[in-house]
Amino acid sequence: MPDLDDTFDIREIPFSTRGAWINLSPVVGLHARSDTIHLVSHQNGMHAVLALRPERSGAGAPTTWSASPSRFAWIASGADGARVEAAFDGPAAVRLRGSGLGLRLDDAAGRLTPMTGTYLLIDPLDGAAVFTSYETGQRYRVTRLAGAMEVVGAEALGVAERAIVLGADGEPWEAALEEIGTAATPYASERGFEEVVAASASAFEDYVEALAPWRTAATPAVTLAAYVLWSATVAADGFMTRDSVLMSKHWMDKLWSWDHCFNALALAAGHPDTALDQFLAPFDHQDASGALPDSITHSEVLRNYVKPPIHGWAFGRLRETLGRALTRAELEETYDRLSRWSRFWLDHRRRPGHVLPYYQHGNDSGWDNATTFDRDRVIEAPDLAAFLVLQLETLAGLGEELGRPAAETAEWRRVRDELLEALTARLWTGTELIAIGALSGQPSTATSLLNLLPLVLGERLPAEIREALAARVCAHLTDWGLATEPTDSPLYEDDGYWRGPIWAPSTALIEDGLRRSGQVQLADAVRERFLRLCERSGFAENFDALRGDGLRDRAYTWTAAVYLGLARDASATRQPEEVVATHL
Q1: 344-366 burial string, b = 16+ CB within 10 Å, else e?
Q2: Which member of 119, 190, 334, 493 has the lowest number of beta carbons within 10 Å of its beta carbon?
Q3: What are phi and psi of 371, to 5 degrees?
Q4: 514 to each of 38, 295, 527, 532, how far by Cα in Å?
């Protein structure tokens, strides 16, 4: 098997562990990168709480960084072997040790007000030094385990230097840094530092083995993709009612109500319970109308937008690969929640007298600024109708499986058929699918890849429409994958978010739709190019469609998840000569 302790660039991917709300990273805010590693927390938002600065003889020491899934190190310039190392001892504690270098932990802002900043004290209970943070609402406790520890600015108010300095005169030292609430049992561990590293490495190895036992040298980014998912998983806390995979442990530290589906699909075979939690997480905040929230974080639930109803499509895929059978209670829960989610669209998002539902804004579609929304923002969109058709079909089948009244399942199918007919009659021009302004009645532009997502309907679409949509996919296919706007379109932008860059979810949906439509060769091309893109450029939020460079947030879980799903499918269908050709 490939090496499970592969190193990675901490400027791209933060160092963390499964269940933690904290990480070590130089990324300290929206598109903001420091020259210093920080302890970053994602409770109450993303906050760079403490700067961690290696020192030698009281002065800053130049170092290089080395990160792997189980160990992070600052390595001093020169040949004396001086270094500081960090490893997670469970989700709330970071073990630190140094030899030849000390480590200074400080509040970089240096200003404490009644509502901002950190306060530093020495706890009389156990002698630990504790920073309290207004921004996160948490405490950061440093416990000396060996060597020297100096506390600077304890109990200082206002503008002041507040720091903890670990190690002195190059002597070996060790400490533990924890994120805690109001109180916690004093830190104690019977494990040495190397045992902590070994336990973390073993936990990750078990996670990867369950997730991707099929991995080979032909899928070289699997371990890193698994680490992105593993390290971005947080324990249930606050509004996160289940252990959840954040979209990132950079600034995109949320769970949006369609992103979670792709993470659930990647986890389904190897971690079925976690996968089901990912699928159901936003439904824990379903409101009285049946709507899902736009997003969830530790400390907020946003409802100003929604996200597209891809959940029927996702649930069908989930059951195909889930590593265990669902219980009747789980099926009943899913049926109830999908029913209410569907009724939201049917009862609250259809203009009187209209069959097709509408988005109120691009954000509702997940394609925030796609060109389909340029003329009107409130639109009856082809992708929305297609997703709802699949969701109603899923409900009808699930209702029959659960023994629901025949009239109930028949009604789901009647509305499904009505929507499908309206999609093809109202939004198909004879050459392309368009969106229509729900108020203006005017057609949208049709160049966005968004308009091709109804391919997920497969054989439910007339052959003429399937073939036309597949042909239009070719206009979006670059050497690296599917541009969300054709590169020769006057509306194309290299870094235009949904107006050009390649994205994982659109790739997954189109690839699946092509296969369901019998366009296997084209689906294979889409899959192979996206795999090659991730193996070259990592797991960014999106990618430049022409150059293949990663854009925006560089440790995005749905990108890693789609890579894993496509790599798994490819490993099952590739012939040996195809594997060689793909990776030459």
Answers
A1: bbeeebbeeeebbbbbeebbbbb
A2: 190
A3: -65, -20
A4: 44, 29, 11, 19
Q: Which amino acid is at 303?
A: R
What does DSSP assign to residue 520? H
Sort residue 441 into left (φ over 0), alpha (ψ -120 to 50) or beta.
Answer: left
Q: What is the pLDDT of residues 522-563, one digit of tens each?
A: 999 999 999 999 999 999 999 999 999 999 999 999 999 999
- CA 420 from centre of chain: 32
- Whether 374 and 318 have beta carbons less than 8 Å apart is answered as no
* pLDDT single digits (tens) 109-151: 778 888 889 999 999 999 999 999 999 999 999 999 999 999 9
- The answer to whether the beta carbons of residues 306 and 249 sit under 8 Å apart is no
Bridge partners (DSSP) listed for residue 103:
54, 166
* β-bridge mates for residue 175, sequence order: 96, 144
Spatial contact of 46 and 31, defined as CB atoms under 8 Å apart? no
Q: How far separated are the first and last CA of the chain, in Å rounded?
A: 20
264, 568 Cβ separation under 8 angstroms: no
Closest CA to 133 of 161, 111, 165: 111
pLDDT confidence of residue 112: 84
Helix spans in 270-327 (H): 272-280, 311-321
Contacts of 122 (CB under 8 A, 6+ apart): 128, 129, 130, 151, 154
Q: What is the DSSP string of 430-460?
A: SS-B--EETTT-PBPP--SGGGGGGGGGGGG
- Cα 77-82-83 angle, rounded to 5 deg: 95
As a whole number of angstroms, the distance between CA 383 and CA 40 comes to 38
* Residue 573 host element (H or E): helix 557-573
CA-CA distance, 525 to 336, in Å (whole number)?
Answer: 38
Residue keyed to tokens 């079925």: 272
E strand or H helix at 177? strand 173-180
Residue 23 has pLDDT above 50, yes or no: yes
CB 383 within 8 A of CB 313: no
Could you tell me the residue ranges of all domains in the chain? Answer: 22-186
For residues 229-264, one letter each, b for 16 or more C-beta atoms within 10 angstroms of the residue's C-beta and e for the rest, the string is: bbbbbbeeebbbbbbbbbbbbbbbbbbbbbbbbbbb
- For residues 158 and 180, the answer to whether their CB atoms sit within 8 Å is no
Within 8 A by CB and 6+ apart from 490, the residues are none
